[in-house]
Amino acid sequence: MSRASSFTRQLLLIRKIQQENAKGVFPTLEALMNDVTKNLFNRNLDEVGISEITFKRDLQQIRKFFSIPIFYDKKEKGYYIEDYSQNESIIETALESFEILSSLNNDGVMPDFIIPEKRKSTGTQYFSNLMACIKNEDIVSFAYFKYDTEITTHPVIYPYALKESQRRWYLIGKTTCTNEIRAYGLDRISNINRTGLKFKKTTTITEIIKKYEDCFAMFSSDANPEKIIISYDKRDGNYIKSFPVHHSQRIEKEEENRIFFSFYLKIEPDFMMELLSRAWSLEIIEPLSLRTELHKILMDAKFRNS
């Protein structure tokens, strides 16, 4: 049995348990085995089904390699997934990619009625190399193109983590010259080189997560986070409800024609750009400083386009 087949079965199991749990259902062993067998057949995989032994082995591997806690509830006589928020975004990305790849036909070609968005590389081809550098505490250097100055620099970095933000991936590390934590977009990195030198980590992953917790994206200043209240019309509000822009997003109230949201984060350029993307229905309730700043930006834009 191939590793690819095992991976497919495990993702099918995760997806099915997720879907059933979302409906308040605890799927039984029989239901899960039948569903996986059916899906393997529909995907034209050379499988005769899934045995109980294989199922239990898959559960062990899911817990080990995906860090997803799947348990059996004796009262409900079915399986459920406990909270796995630490790896949730990675797992969801893997499941999304799996669903897309599963749509390939027998020739390995995407059907013409599947129309994906055209995107440039986000630098994930450097993942394995950078992960090895982080794990082994190898000092790394690379070429880095800065969008604001359009200059290529060659930083030497103590690599600490890889972080996703706004569908882009970043290398988080400390510069060897200032020892400050900085973020480098993988889409702007090239010519990665292991220097052969080692370093010792002096900052924890928890501290790095904390640094960006109150940021909208990767721009992190010394500003204090603030409570922000905004509103949108129903159309934009429903888009924001379905795809929250920040983990602190909360619905304050809903009126006939408006939806009010609150956030708790630092007011920085990336967040203001996000607000401006739906400026046609946006109203800033508080703080006044944000309302004033966005008003100035819009007035400057009006002047440029008059």
UniProtKB/TrEMBL annotation:
<dbReference type="Pfam" id="PF25583">
    <property type="entry name" value="WCX"/>
</dbReference>
<protein>
    <submittedName>
        <fullName>Predicted DNA-binding transcriptional regulator YafY, contains an HTH and WYL domains</fullName>
    </submittedName>
</protein>
<dbReference type="GO" id="GO:0003677">
    <property type="term" value="F:DNA binding"/>
</dbReference>
<dbReference type="Pfam" id="PF13280">
    <property type="entry name" value="WYL"/>
</dbReference>
<feature type="domain" description="WCX">
    <location>
        <begin position="228"/>
        <end position="298"/>
    </location>
</feature>
<keyword id="KW-0238">DNA-binding</keyword>
<feature type="domain" description="WYL">
    <location>
        <begin position="126"/>
        <end position="192"/>
    </location>
</feature>
<dbReference type="InterPro" id="IPR051534">
    <property type="entry name" value="CBASS_pafABC_assoc_protein"/>
</dbReference>
<dbReference type="InterPro" id="IPR057727">
    <property type="entry name" value="WCX_dom"/>
</dbReference>
<dbReference type="InterPro" id="IPR026881">
    <property type="entry name" value="WYL_dom"/>
</dbReference>
